[in-house]
What we know:
The complex is a heterodimer of chains A (461) and B (272). Chain A has 461 residues and is mainly alpha-helical. Chain A folds into 2 domains: 3-153, no CATH class; 216-457, Orthogonal Bundle (MetI-like fold). Helices cover 77% and strands 1% of the residues of chain A. Chain A has a two-stranded antiparallel sheet. In chain A, helix 9 packs across helix 12 (313-338). The longest helix of chain A is centred in the middle third of the chain and has 41 residues, at 155-195. Chain B is of the alpha/beta class and 272 residues long. Helix content of chain B is 35%, strand content 25%. A 7-stranded mixed β-sheet of chain B has the order 1-11-10-4-9-8-7, sandwiched between helices. Chain B has a 4-stranded antiparallel β-sheet with strand order 3-2-5-6, covered by helices on one side. In chain B, 47% of the residues are buried. Mean pLDDT of chain B is 89; it is low at 1-5. Classes of the chains: A mainly alpha (461), B alpha/beta (272). The A-B interface holds A 263, 340, 342-353, 356, 360-361, 364-365, 459-460 and B 71, 73, 76, 78, 101-106, 108-109, 111, 113, 115-119, 127-128, 131-132, 167, 178, 181-182, 185.
Amino acid sequence: MNEYTLLILLLLISLLWFYFGNKTALSLKNKQLKLNSLPHYYGIYVALYSIIPSLFSYLLILVFDGILFSNLIMEFVPKEILNSPDFNKIIVLAQIDNAVRGIYFGEQPDWVTIASNQMIEWNNQSLILNFFCSISLALGIGYLGFKNIHQEFRSRNSVEKIIISLLGLSSIIAILTTIGIVFSVIFESLRFFAIIPASEFLFGLTWNPQFEGAERAGSGQEGLASYGSVPLFVGTFLISLIALCVSVPIGLFSAVYLSEYANKKERSIFKPLLEILAGIPTVVYGFFAALTVAPLMRNGGSLIGLDVASESALAAGFVMGIMIIPFISSLSDDVINAVPQSLRDAGYGLGSTKNEVITNVIIPAALPGIIASIILAVSRAIGETMIVVMAAGLAANLSFNPLDAVTTVTAQIVTILVGDQEFESAKTLSAFALALTLIVITLILNFYALHVVKKYREQYE
Amino acid sequence: MVSNSNINNVKTKTIGEIFSKDPKIICRNVDVFYGEKQAIKDVSIDIASREIISFIGPSGCGKSTFLRCLNRMNDTIDTCKVKGSISLDKEDIYDEKIDVVTLRAKIGMVFQKPNPFPKSIYENVAYGPKIHGLSSSKEELDFIVENSLKDSGLWEEVKDRLQSPGTGLSGGQQQRLCIARAIAVSPEIILMDEPCSALDPIATAKIEELINQLGKNYSIVIVTHSMQQAARISQRTAYFHLGELIEVGETKKIFTMPKDKQTEAYISGRIG
Lengths: 461, 272
């Protein structure tokens, strides 16, 4: 007897209700009564009517019991542990939880065994309660729904309403998740800004996060830690700029070629091939950049007397540019195709060559859409992590030279949060502040892109 | 070059007078195919200098297709093939030596739906002169734009807002802007593909008046669905049916005494 049995039981009950609902509706129909809806709608209606409240009550009891038990169990924790300065409720609960699952680390204190036994008992009682509540709800409310069935009952409309609320619920979950992400980042960032002033973070020119523990242990130099994010943002924008220099011309030109010059056959070959680029995992681009492009650039640079770092912004930016080509080419292609044929005709009718029509008529008319596609590509480039981690290095140099090693915001977030970290330290928290700033910047870019797209819609309609 | 001896010696089923004394465009035995489908069958006709000729006929009869052959706009459609000969000033326009870009500068076109560029009014008219290098200075360009707008009767309405977008004008004004844009490159012939079909009666009247004015300086070929319009503005009328040119003649004669039964049926409203 466990949770899965319960869920399967609930499903079976709703299936049964579907069968009964359907059967009743069919028998009404066989009596030559004109039903409002098709018979299976009555079945679906009763099934949904029984399963939704019972699932809801199941989840509610599960969550509520979890909270209740974790508070009640504190009774079993000895006073000296509760009052000690190192007391952490989460750790104590995890200890008990592990005992419940039968995972032990060394000798178990007596109170943990008692508490875990108590917990197991409560859990069993809760499960029985849950069984009883959910199944009686599934049967009872299902029966109420079943009683609703009569000739004039509009089960189609009722099913419609239930479906609409399910759809609404799904979209609310997506929105709530976004809000949750933003808030979790905001709260951690606020903790960071309590330690490091925002002005230092936003305008400081040196990025050198250090664990306080490292200083204490003597391995870090005193006062070395500094959290000026400017080098990171400069690095991010430098790499994004290089990526754009690669992707905008190539993407735009291939969009023009695809939409204006290529015939149907060429288009059907080239467009999917180009879009394959978007399907390559970024980590693959990362080692392409680190193992192929970066050495190539270093060797090529040394041939013409340039000193290219083995991990350079140029290599990362170049490969990132290739990665975002399909974003620009695919969107621009759609936008260019959306330019009405009548404008092309007007251009040709005045004696323009194809190239003149493209540069003087089509590109200007499609420009807002093209800009929007570029902005979307930029936000993609700014958020890109893997290529930078692998190819651009982690040295937070404040440099505008594309041949130097630089680092980006996302690459720093990764290095800060990977591995063991002390959660209260400024170093760890700085990752959240970086993320928040990045979210704000990409959000502004996206809003701007949407605004441009909106403006574009009013252009020639 | 099409030799002079045989241009007026052509077999045709068309009734009426396909020849003219001072031909600008000479079409002989023109067939047009869209893939396998034949859209125009053996059409021969002359278009004279400074005449207004209208093409009428039921929908799908090929009159617009034929019109678009005259400045090779059909080139943009891959499946379209043109056979026979069409010559402008006795030069075959489908000859390989012909530069289609210059050809279209000589034969302007106005479309069914007003299609101004999403640029300013000034830029719309200046577009053609700019790409063909018709002006050497800003003043000259201003002069061309002003004159074209005056010729199209739009100058008084837009002279204070030349920099506002052409798409912001009313439908009739947009169509006159498109006419101004077409005459700014000083073409010799203007093709009009149902230029008034998207316009209200008042705008239509203005465009018709404009066409009458322009007819003094240009040859105008106009495709129209409105027989009244053909009767009002054109000197000659050609009736197309199912890709064939059935009858050509003076507008008055076509509308009062059509020789062909099909023409008569269309004009009296029995088909179409």
